[in-house]
Amino acid sequence: MKSTFKLSLAAVLVSSAMAANAGIAIVDNEDGNFSVGGNVELNFNYQDRESNENGDAEFNQDGRVLIEFAGEKYATSGHYVGVKAQPLFESTGNVALDDAYFEFGKKDSWAIKAGRFEAYDMFPVGLDVFLEYSGDTSNELYTGDSAYVYQMKEARGRGSDGQLMYNQSFGNLYLEIGTMIGDRSDLFSDTYHGTAVDHDNAKDSFLVRPVVAYNMGDFTVAASVETNLISDAIVDVNGKDISDRTGYGLTGNWNHGSWNVNANFAYLDAVDETNASVGLNALYNNFGLGYVYGANEYDSTWAQGDVKVNTGYASYEFQNVLEVEDFSILLGTYYTTVENKTNNVSAFSEDDDFGARVRLYYEF
User: Fold this and answer.
1) Which end of the chain has fewer CB within 10 Å, C or N?
2) Do β-strands 32-49 and 352-363 pair in parallel, antiparallel, or remain unpaired?
3) Where is the signal peptide (predicted)?
4) Quick one: CA torsion of 214, 148, 139, 209, rounded to 10 degrees?
């Protein structure tokens, strides 16, 4: 009966807050908080990609609505428990999920987080309204015949199975140990170096990603490593272990006044290839400019030599459009090229791709 009364009271408070604040609900007191928020993102895209088979320019629209439910419960000792869920309603009609996790710990000290989330960003790209590469990023997929722009994200999070992370702050020093568990064969498409990937016999992986960061006034530096501890977790049809991958990353940020600058470096030691990426981007007021360089070196019977990717991008944000707070219109564009210097002339097609985007964004 007591629990039912508490839930009913919370529901009344949430409903009242939503009615009063146009879609934002907050219950906040010394015992804890509960909030409902989110954002809307709608993109109008133009792309001219040489990889397009018919050679035509592409026009399309995509986007999503994110709804966030978040709550925390506090103890007088400073400890807490928290939960967050962010369902995504895509303009395609699909329903997906961004973050969904449970955490507990002590405020401004330590925390343990489990579920679905993203760990520390070791390759921040700034205001990336529209950013794609002649190849694939390491967020989701390694494609056999495409260049790979490694960004220290293979073990960062939002995998299909699960994550567990511990983090703690010691003044200006921040430590984080993140793990991902389960099937990670979805990192690879159909082939690796010309040989089919054996997705049917994949084992569960165990990825570890420690991060250490230090803040010095306007400067923050961070270093990290990520690796898979399970042998033969993913193999090709010949039995070769292609899950033996170890990445290293270093990133620095300078944030002063209207300036925010990131410098990134990432290096991956993989089977029969290495991947190195360098990124530099800056945000001044509402204008963003960035550059990413990727260099892949192959040493196998399938390909030997280098593949290089150069990508530049720019963006601008118009804030509080029509004098509506938190309503923005963003403009973004990118241009990317790939240069194949391997002995495999049929792979890594030298495509020059261009894209431009108008984004409507509202946060509530």
Assistant:
1) N
2) antiparallel
3) 1-22
4) -40
Q: What's the whole-model pTM score? A: 0.88
Residue 6's Cβ-count burial label (10 Å; 0-12, 13-18, 19+) is exposed
CA distance 16 to 7: 14
Domain assignment present for 232: yes
> How much is the pLDDT for 134?
67
Burial (Cβ within 10 Å: 0-12, 13-18, ≥19) of residue 150? buried
Which candidate, 182, 136, 125, 177, places its Cα nearest to that of 158? 182
**Which CATH number fits the domain that encloses residue 48?**
2.40.160.10
Q: Which residues pair with 46 in a beta bridge?
A: 59, 356
Angle in degrees, CA 129, 132, 136, rounded to 5:
140
Residues with Cβ within 8 Å of 226's Cβ and at least 6 positions away in sequence, in order, are 152, 154, 155, 156, 207, 208, 209, 246, 247, 249
Domain that holds residue 104: 24-363
From 194, 187, 188, select the one nearest 145 (Cα to Cα): 194
Q: What is the DSSP letter of 84?
A: E
Token digits for 40?
A: 């809307």
Q: How far apart are CA 212 and CA 167, in angstroms?
A: 10
Q: Specify the number of domains making up the chain.
A: 1
Do the domain assignments include residue 12? no
| Helix H or strand E segment including 150 | none
Report if residue 255 sits inside a domain. Answer: yes
More confident residue, 160 or 152: 152
* Residues found in the chain: 364
Tell me, yes or no, whether 141 lies in a domain. yes
Which of 247, 255, 189 is closest to 219 using CA atoms? 255
